[in-house]
Design a protein that fits this description.
The protein has six helices and three strands; from the N terminus they run ββααααβαα. Strands 2-1-3 form a three-stranded antiparallel sheet. Helices cover about 50% and strands about 10% of the residues.
Length: about 220
């Protein structure tokens, strides 16, 4: 029987769109026999919350909007406009206020997307955190399981436990390459003396890396 999407009730045709939530418990940390490294053992489990392709795309759009909103605020502060607005340094305050409004536009768009206020058919009617109300997730929490596939820093899903659509595998690779390129650009620009621009590229690196882990949960 084909499951229904937990977020909108439509038929979830491909399990690769499911929201994967990892759990772990019974963490045991100790030294190896020859006291060379610290060994950590734990139990892990994965719950796949049914999700259709539309809700999957909508959640990715929401996450992208959040990254852009954070990057816009960081770029605004790094550009020095915030200092002009707060009269910390001399500069045109009216222009800084206009750029502040522009920098807050991505945040307003993220809020509208998150609340499903926009009449765009690709958005998910319920937020991604709604997956935590799924009966299987609630049952795991009542049984003492903790969120994440493993304790820090072992947060990756075990190989083969999360099905992925082929298109999202490609997307994860592309975002990872872009994040690496942005990180290299950050270092080059910083040593050339443009620290403000380097801060913007560093924010872009963090955003691209975050999206890569969401597109490809096995990364």
């Amino acid at each position: 029987m084909t499951p229904e999407c937990w977020f909108c009730g439509r038929t979830a045709h491909h399990r690769g769109h499911d929201r994967a939530i990892g759990f772990h418990k019974n963490v045991d940390t100790g030294l190896t026999r020859w006291v060379v490294v610290i060994r950590t053992r734990w139990q892990s489990d994965v719950v796949l919350v049914p999700r259709c392709a539309r809700c999957h795309t909508g959640h990715m759009i929401e996450q992208l909007a959040l990254v852009l909103a954070i990057a816009a605020v960081i770029a605004y502060a790094a550009s020095g406009q915030l200092d002009h607005l707060l009269v910390i340094t001399s500069g045109e305050k009216s222009g800084a206020a206009i750029w502040a409004a522009v920098a807050l536009l991505p945040a307003a768009a993220w809020i509208a997307i998150r609340q499903a206020w926009l009449p765009f058919g690709r958005l998910a009617p319920r937020r991604l955190r709604y997956a935590r109300q799924h009966p299987d997730v609630v049952r795991h929490r009542e049984e003492g399981w903790r969120f994440r596939p493993g304790p820090f820093p072992y947060w990756g899903f075990p190989e083969g436990t999360v099905p992925l659509p082929p298109s999202h595998r490609i997307g994860g690779v592309v975002l990872t390459v872009l994040a690496a390129a942005s990180f290299v650009a950050t270092i080059v620009i910083y040593f050339r003396g443009s620290s403000e621009l380097a801060g913007g590229f560093l924010a872009a690196t963090a955003g691209l890396g975050f999206l890569a882990t969401k597109v490809n949960p096995e990364a």
